[in-house]
Every structure is written in structure tokens, then in C-alpha cells.
């Protein structure tokens, strides 16, 4: 409809008091300025300048146009200033596994905001397999996900492992100390979503020693897992850090035999170097620093 060059010409006419003075100030021919204004008025279906024997003056619509145009120019100048001052600015599309939202993420974003106040974050909480797809399809800039799910070609930096435990509500279940694989597999189990590596590991751990496949339910929400376990729906596989952050959940860890212990979750921060190298390096540095507590 109109561009910044149109705005600049209108501002010059207003500032210098007419078309001829604007021509002298801008170096444009007066006829070129007149045509530009005429074409702009035609496109917008408004009258910007009212003409009389003494010259031109802004119409009511013209005054509104100039007021709004000043805001656009100020916004343009602000954006250009931010992008040319050597500061990181813009929107970062960050994907995280839900475990990370309860542990590393708050420290990471707080540190980044302090160093780069012009950055804005769009945070997606998803499973690692889905984040792998989004990274490859340029739907995410950076992701913190299970290391074994990272697609090829990523710059990948390992983060400290997250330990898992078996948990139950003591008001609903009483298990031997220590509980073995048969004891655990005999009960309903709430774990990670069925498409994920942790879910498959639970099945691989429990199923081979039994004729019947273990009853393992999947949930992408750790809060849901906590509530289900607390209400006695079943026992659950939950990161220790998550349970520690919910001290009133009313659940406790099940002491298990060595063969029933769950492997740690191995997370990594990943990005595609050809698309997001600068912000990827900065988020990696911040994530590594934030993981040291």
C-alpha cells in the first residue's frame, strides 16, 4: 500500500512547508513529488493534502496518516539500531523435553535474558522424536532433547545425565525392600510416552522375564504421571529432580534390586550449524553453565 519512501516524502512536505521546499530538501523534482503523492492518495483512496491558493495543508486523514507513520518510522529505527549494535536480538524457537522445563530451563532462560535482553523465546515442550523432526524441517532453532534421538548433522553437546527412579504412593502400594523386576512388572506402571526411548527401556527391562507383557501406560506430562502415581493409579518412572521439586506429591521412591534400576536419561542441546550457528553456540554455552549447580 505504501512504503517508507512515501512516508519520507510526506514528512518532507510537512516539515518544509510545501512541495517546492520539499523538492529542494530531498533533491527530487517537484513534479516527481507531486506524482508520488497523487499516486499514494489514489492507492489509499484518501486525500492527504488539501490544496488552496496559499499552498497545501494536511487533511484530517493526512494528519492521521502522519501520526501513524511516525510510529512506523520510530519502530523501524529501533529495529535497525538493535540489529546493528552487536547485540543478539530476535525470536529464538526453542524446543525442550518436559524434564528440562522442571530442571534446567528456568536457570538457562534467566541467564540468557540477563545477557541478551533483546532476545525473545518461543518455547515448545515436546517429545524428543518430534523435536528431531522439527529441527530437520527448520521448525525449531535449538532443542534440548534425548541425545540418542538427535538427527544426523546436528551440532550436539551432551548435558549432565538425569537419573530416574521407581516411585509409588505408600498409601496404595506396599512392595518388598528391595523390589525385583517381577514385583514391579506385576503392577500398573506410568511412564514416558510410548514412542520414546525411556518407555521402550522400561518395556525391555520388564518384559523378557515374564510371559505376560507388563502394563505400561505412557504420558507426555510429568505432572500427570506424578498425580496418577500419587492417587494410586500405578507406580511410576520419574526423574529424581522432578520428585524433589514436588515435595508435597505424597510419593516415595521404591528401593529396587540392581537389575531393576533404570538407566539415566542422556540429554543434549542441538542445533543445525548452517542455520543457527550463532544463537546455537550461545544457548549451548548458557545451557552448560546452567547445568552446573
From TrEMBL:
Q: Which UniProt keywords apply?
A: DNA-binding, Transcription, Transcription regulation
TM spans, by residue?
A: none
Keyword Methyltransferase applies: no
Q: GO MF terms on file?
A: DNA binding; DNA-binding transcription factor activity
> What Pfam families does the database record attribute to this sequence?
HTH_1 (PF00126), LysR_substrate (PF03466)
InterPro entries for the chain: LTTR (IPR050176), LysR_HTH_N (IPR000847), LysR_subst-bd (IPR005119), WH-like_DNA-bd_sf (IPR036388), WH_DNA-bd_sf (IPR036390)
Occurrences of domain HTH lysR-type (ranges): 2-59
Record family assignment: Belongs to the LysR transcriptional regulatory family.
Cross-referenced PANTHER family: TRANSCRIPTIONAL REGULATOR, TRANSCRIPTIONAL REGULATORY PROTEIN
Q: What is this protein called?
A: LysR family transcriptional regulator
Which species does this protein come from? Answer: Paenirhodobacter ferrireducens
Amino acid at each position: 500500500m505504501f512504503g517508507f519512501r512515501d512516508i519520507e516524502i510526506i514528512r518532507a512536505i510537512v516539515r518544509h512547508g510545501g512541495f517546492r521546499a520539499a523538492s529542494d530538501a530531498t533533491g527530487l523534482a517537484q513534479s516527481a513529488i507531486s506524482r508520488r503523492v497523487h499516486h499514494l492518495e489514489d492507492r489509499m483512496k484518501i486525500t492527504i493534502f488539501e490544496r488552496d491558493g496559499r499552498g497545501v495543508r494536511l487533511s484530517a486523514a493526512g494528519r492521521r496518516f502522519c501520526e501513524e507513520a511516525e510510529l512506523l518510522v520510530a519502530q523501524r529505527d529501533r529495529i535497525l539500531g538493535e540489529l546493528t549494535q552487536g547485540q543478539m536480538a530476535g525470536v529464538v524457537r526453542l524446543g525442550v523435553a518436559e524434564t528440562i522445563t522442571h530442571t534446567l530451563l528456568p536457570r538457562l532462560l534467566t541467564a540468557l535474558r540477563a545477557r541478551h535482553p533483546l532476545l525473545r523465546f518461543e518455547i515448545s515442550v515436546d517429545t524428543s522424536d518430534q523435536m528431531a523432526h522439527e529441527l530437520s524441517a527448520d521448525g525449531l532453532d535449538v532443542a534440548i532433547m534425548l541425545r540418542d534421538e538427535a538427527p544426523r548433522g546436528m551440532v550436539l553437546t551432551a548435558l549432565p545425565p538425569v537419573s530416574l527412579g521407581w516411585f509409588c504412593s505408600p498409601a496404595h502400594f506396599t512392595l518388598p525392600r528391595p523390589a525385583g523386576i517381577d514385583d514391579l512388572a506385576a503392577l500398573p506402571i506410568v511412564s514416558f510416552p510410548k514412542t520414546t526411548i525411556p518407555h521402550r527401556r522400561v518395556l525391555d527391562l520388564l518384559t523378557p522375564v515374564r510371559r505376560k507383557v507388563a502394563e505400561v501406560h505412557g504420558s507426555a506430562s510429568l505432572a500427570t504421571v506424578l498425580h496418577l502415581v500419587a492417587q494410586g493409579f500405578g507406580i511410576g518412572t520419574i526423574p529424581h529432580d522432578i520428585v524433589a521439586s514436588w515435595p508435597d506429591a505424597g510419593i516415595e521412591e521404591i528401593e529396587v534390586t540392581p537389575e531393576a534400576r533404570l538407566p539415566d536419561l542422556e540429554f543434549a542441546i542441538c542445533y543445525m550449524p548452517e542455520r543457527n550457528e550463532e544463537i546455537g553456540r550461545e544457548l549451548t554455552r548458557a545451557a552448560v553453565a546452567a547445568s552446573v549447580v
